[in-house]
């Protein structure tokens, strides 16, 4: 079908705006990467834009050689993998009954869940609760409090509601239990939704910062985001004292790329599900 002049103009403007937005998001990454690979003198002189000047890997050699940074990377990987799995598991267990028509108190529970999105827990009672549960200075404090996101739970529940109810009735007639329906029918049919929610949860866990800075004192349990903060502060101090032969900006830039690169490498493999997630639960019969 031939497009009208208005549709062609709209498509052209739409593509132009999206391309410009994409460029505006990509250029800062190239700028930081260029700084991390540039000579400190050129960085101090503000000569570096998007291409390295007098390329050197001194900052990267310093960053890669830090064992504590690799340990923090291991903490992030553990928290992201385990946390994402637990979040998907418990979110599915909660979203499924809330999507069932015969669950009479589902509206009351959903009301309570929505309230948690509007009113956040006060910091002092929250801290005392974490302390009473024995989670202080534990790697699990980075996982358990973030296990279920109310926003992701609502989206997953809406997706479950779109699945044909006749499938559940047929399974019940064949003697399938509620758990069997969930794990053998609902979840296999919800792979796109689970992949999208997994991406959302993985980003949350990978960028964990607030819980780490509030509840973690053991430096061996620092995630990458907290280690990035420590590296930026220490690099500034070391350069000011003349104890480090690198420019603090090159070290900071290399650390930022080091922290961001793993999640950027994962994203292309789940990008097709991200488009699905943009409209997930938006249409309901």
TrEMBL record:
<keyword id="KW-1133">Transmembrane helix</keyword>
<feature type="domain" description="ABC transmembrane type-1">
    <location>
        <begin position="73"/>
        <end position="267"/>
    </location>
</feature>
<dbReference type="Pfam" id="PF00528">
    <property type="entry name" value="BPD_transp_1"/>
</dbReference>
<feature type="transmembrane region" description="Helical">
    <location>
        <begin position="108"/>
        <end position="127"/>
    </location>
</feature>
<keyword id="KW-1003">Cell membrane</keyword>
<comment type="similarity">
    <text>Belongs to the binding-protein-dependent transport system permease family.</text>
</comment>
<dbReference type="InterPro" id="IPR000515">
    <property type="entry name" value="MetI-like"/>
</dbReference>
<feature type="transmembrane region" description="Helical">
    <location>
        <begin position="75"/>
        <end position="96"/>
    </location>
</feature>
<feature type="transmembrane region" description="Helical">
    <location>
        <begin position="193"/>
        <end position="216"/>
    </location>
</feature>
<feature type="transmembrane region" description="Helical">
    <location>
        <begin position="12"/>
        <end position="34"/>
    </location>
</feature>
<feature type="transmembrane region" description="Helical">
    <location>
        <begin position="251"/>
        <end position="270"/>
    </location>
</feature>
<dbReference type="InterPro" id="IPR035906">
    <property type="entry name" value="MetI-like_sf"/>
</dbReference>
<keyword id="KW-0812">Transmembrane</keyword>
<keyword id="KW-0813">Transport</keyword>
<feature type="transmembrane region" description="Helical">
    <location>
        <begin position="139"/>
        <end position="160"/>
    </location>
</feature>
<keyword id="KW-0472">Membrane</keyword>
<protein>
    <submittedName>
        <fullName>Carbohydrate ABC transporter permease</fullName>
    </submittedName>
</protein>
């Amino acid at each position: 079908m031939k497009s009208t002049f208005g549709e062609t103009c709209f498509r052209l403007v739409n593509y132009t705006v999206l391309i410009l937005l994409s460029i505006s998001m990509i250029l800062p990454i190239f700028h930081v990467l260029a700084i991390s690979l540039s000579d400190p003198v050129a960085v101090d002189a503000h000569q570096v834009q998007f291409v390295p000047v007098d390329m050197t890997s001194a900052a990267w050699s310093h960053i890669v050689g830090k064992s504590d940074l690799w340990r923090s990377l291991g903490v992030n990987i553990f928290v992201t993998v385990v946390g994402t799995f637990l979040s998907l598991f418990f979110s599915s267990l909660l979203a499924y009954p809330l999507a069932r028509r015969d669950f009479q108190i589902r509206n009351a529970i959903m009301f309570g869940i929505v309230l948690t999105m509007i009113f956040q827990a006060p910091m002092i009672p929250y801290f005392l609760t974490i302390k009473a549960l024995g989670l202080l200075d534990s790697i699990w404090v980075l996982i358990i409090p973030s296990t279920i996101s109310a926003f992701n739970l609502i989206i997953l529940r809406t997706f479950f509601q779109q699945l044909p109810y006749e499938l559940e009735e047929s399974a019940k007639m064949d003697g399938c239990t509620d758990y069997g329906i969930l794990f053998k029918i609902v979840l296999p049919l919800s792979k796109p939704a689970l992949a999208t929610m997994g991406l959302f949860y993985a980003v949350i866990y990978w960028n964990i910062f607030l819980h780490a800075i509030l509840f973690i004192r053991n430096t061996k349990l620092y995630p990458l985001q907290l280690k990035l903060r420590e590296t930026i502060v220490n690099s500034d101090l070391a350069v000011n004292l003349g104890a480090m032969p690198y420019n603090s900006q090159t070290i900071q830039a290399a650390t930022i790329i080091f922290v961001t690169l793993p999640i950027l490498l994962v994203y292309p493999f789940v990008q097709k599900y991200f488009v699905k997630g943009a409209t997930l639960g938006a249409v309901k019969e």
